[in-house]
Amino acid sequence: MAWTRQDTLDGLERTAVFGGLRAELRAALVPYAEPQELHGGDVLFRAGEPSLALYVLCSGSLGAFGRGLAGGAEQLLGAITPGETVGELGFLTGQPRSATVRALRDCTLLRLGRSDVLLRLMAEHPQALAESLRHILQRLGRRDAGEALTPPRTFALLGAHARLPLRDAAERLAVALRPFGATLVLDAALGRGQDAAWHSAREREHRFVLYVADAGDAAWRATCIRQADQFLLTAELGAPPQPWPDALCRSGGDALHRTRRLLLLGPPGAPPAQRAREWLRLFGGAVQAHHLRDDADFARLARHLAQRAVGLVLSGGGARGFGHVGVVRALRERGTPIDAIGGTSIGAIVGAAVACEWSDAEIDAQLRAGFISGHPLRDLTLPLIALTRGKRATRLLQRAFGTRRIEDLAIPFFCLSTNLTEGRVDVHRDGALWKWLRAGAAIPGILPPLLDRGMVHVDGAVLNNLPTDVMRDAGVHHIIAVDISGDNALPAAFEDAALPALPRLTWQWLHGRQWPSLFAILVRAAMVQSESSTEMRRGLATRLLTPPHADVGLLSWHAHARAIDSAYRYTLAYDALP
Predict the structure, then answer these.
(1) CA 516, CA 491: separation in Å to the nearest integer?
(2) How far apart are CA 149 and CA 142, in angstroms?
(3) Is residue 345 flagged as an active site residue?
(4) Cα–Cα distance between 358 and 362 in angstroms, integer?
(5) Is 359 one of the annotated active-site residues of the chain?
(6) C-alpha to C-alpha distance for 495 and 505, rounded to whole angstroms
(7) How far is CA 575 from the centre of its chain?
(8) Residue 116: in which H helix or E strand, if any?
């Protein structure tokens, strides 16, 4: 489109940095503001490049890309929406770019180059500089508090086939989104034939825009895809999976790295096994599945889209993990939503029970059956690889979780294992649930490792016992972390450097002078490596819960009732604080 002086003034006025300036100061910036257009996928600048300009986004959507807190491949760190400025910190300090910024869809920007005239103008008008610095500090503060750059604003609901009740799903989602901001459902009848300026105006008027794609209108469907920050790929859970009709949504690269969510519409009750997997295997790259059965599921999805989702992260810690049951019970009583859950070792097992939507009584009963009645560590063997064979633990997990797969769970879930072959943490978001719970609980020396596709997996607590960083990288920024690994995990009641002879050792044991057991030493040793980074991971939590457990040993399964009750009362008291 033809760009005018008034368009430049309007673009500057809509920004937090320049919008508060007097009109004559904004007018003085116009000669230095150069219009620039990007097509979806174009790179604005790359991490490490010199900072030669700052930019004002007038329309479209940009994505900031970099490494997540847990490392790994490049990922989308956050979206940048119209009215925001990009690159101010590098512009003012001369530092290289800290992230790569690409267009998520077609964009119009204003480029303000690093010229002596512009810098002198800002120096002569400190109000402009102060406003820019305030904006930078606010953004850094939000980032340090765990918030993304900007939540996405536009979503395309794309149906797998024409028979889907897509409009009904959009209306239910809009109802769930409106507590977080004005929401518009925009279908072909309202938006067909409108130009980019009209769509930009609708996006300025509303916090969220839901584009509803009509399967029979190819032109309108293309518009929905072009305008979307995220894709909501909608299918009926019971329908036969078929190749996705939109080629641009089939892989992360084709989607220009925009987030893709698979919405599986289904009847009430537990989602059937394997069906989510059959749909997900049609796509390349990361796709998050959401099961939508009732209004509660739509509310959970809305919190994810608005970046208000609450993630629960549960640490490992042996028998102290029964405290997680008390925490969950208290959170449910308080009405605290649990929109995603992840954990390590015993925390992952409790988290999986929550993701299965078991009641408090069911969780309690299953854990008692598994860890108390089931005696998972009693199949002792010649300790060539581990003290136990691992068959009892495997059988108990299979009995509890059956054929469920992680992607079939009603609540998004992940668990961790330590990959000894590659020397890294593996995050499991799909696959057989029992299998990866078994891998993530394989305490070195006690349970044999899980061998899978040439890899050796042991307890995730070896490298990451409180995976708040994994939850953050998944896009969940309100995190309740429960750390039961804690202090005094393996106390010593006396001083000694060598074991006495067996008769003397037996006599001492009968008279109360007990060394820590081999099992307890191995459990504690598995957790020590990750504690050097635990403080950083604790700092990522919005709320950090550390239930008291000094009188519960790492293998004190008989103290389960005390651990549950203590954590329950602690969490109720914590939640009651202002």
Answers:
(1) 8
(2) 8
(3) yes
(4) 6
(5) no
(6) 14
(7) 23
(8) helix 116-124
One DSSP character per residue, 278-296 reads HHHTTSBS--EEEEE-SHH
Integer Cα distance of 64 and 108 in angstroms = 16
CA angle 15, 18, 24 (to 5 degrees): 130
Cβ neighbours of 50 (radius 10 Å): 12
- The arithmetic mean of pLDDT across residues 368-382, rounded, is 73
Continuous H helices in 228-280: 275-280
Tokens 């606010």 -> residue: 138
d(CA 79, CA 101): 9
- Whole-number Å distance between alpha carbons of 91 and 113: 9
Q: Is 33 exposed, middle or buried (0-12, 13-18, 19+ CB in 10 A)?
A: buried
Q: Which long-range contacts (CB under 8 A, 24 or more apart) does 183-189 make?
A: 183/207, 183/208, 183/209, 183/210, 184/208, 184/209, 184/210, 185/210, 185/212, 186/210, 186/211, 186/212, 187/211, 187/212, 187/214, 188/212, 188/214, 188/217, 188/220
Distance CA 465, CA 335 (A): 27
What pTM was estimated for this model as a whole? 0.85
Residue from 51, 59, 315, 345 carrying the catalytic annotation: 345
Instruction: Map 332-398 to HEC letters.
Output: HHHCCCCCEEEECCHHHHHHHHHHCCCCHHHHHHHHHHHHHHCCCCCCECCCCCCCECCHHHHHHHH
Residue type, 513: R
Q: Following DSSP, what letter does each residue of 198-235 receive, concatenated? A: HHHHHHHH-SEEEEE--TT-HHHHHHHHHH-SEEEEEE
Q: Which one of the listed residues 364, 459, 473, 483 is annotated catalytic?
A: 459
HSE (side-chain half, CA atoms, 13 Å) at 197: 6
* 463-517 pLDDT, tens digit each: 899 999 999 989 898 999 999 876 555 666 666 666 667 677 666 666 666 656 5
User: Are 452 and 421 contacting, i.e. CB atoms less than 8 angstroms apart?
Assistant: no
User: Whole-angstrom Cα distance, residue 103 to residue 431?
Assistant: 33
pLDDT at position 78 over 80: no
Identify whether the C-beta of residue 316 lies closer than 8 Å to the C-beta of residue 460.
Answer: yes
Residues 6+ apart with CB under 8 A from 284: 250, 251, 252, 253
Which run of H or E residues covers position 45?
strand 43-45
CA 576 to chain CA centroid, Å, is: 26
**Tens digits of residue pLDDT in 185-205:** 999 999 998 988 898 889 889
